[in-house]
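USER:
Class, as today's exercise, take the chain set out below, and explain how the chain folds.
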Amino acid sequence: MTTGRDRPQSISKILSANDTGETGGHQAGILVPRQEAILSFFPPVDRSERNPRHHLVFRDAQDQRWEFAFIYYNNLFSGGTRNEYRLTRMTPYIRESGLVAGDELILERDDGGRFSVRYVRARQSGRGADGVLRLGSAWKIINI
């Protein structure tokens, strides 16, 4: 179990075409891996509830408010088909920001528990100004 101090302050994901809707398919948000280090960024969910969720308010660089939902789809255990974590309700942010496959989505939480969201365009990624080398398309913790 992680404490608030152990929780990562930032996580990132290189977006896939499926994440951004470029494939034309429908999915319920971006898949969040079951890695404790990634899951601990989000508030804990009550796994005894069916499909528990938290609605989280993120702010972008222009202080625009975005509400995303962190959901544990656990309906596999009650006749459904899913057993996975997802970050949903992101389509408006992705579309308004013009994000495409290869762009990096960065989610951050400050010491007061406030969430923010930003991105780095694929053409700007690689070794960032912060000196972090970004590779692959998996979620990762950003050590700052």
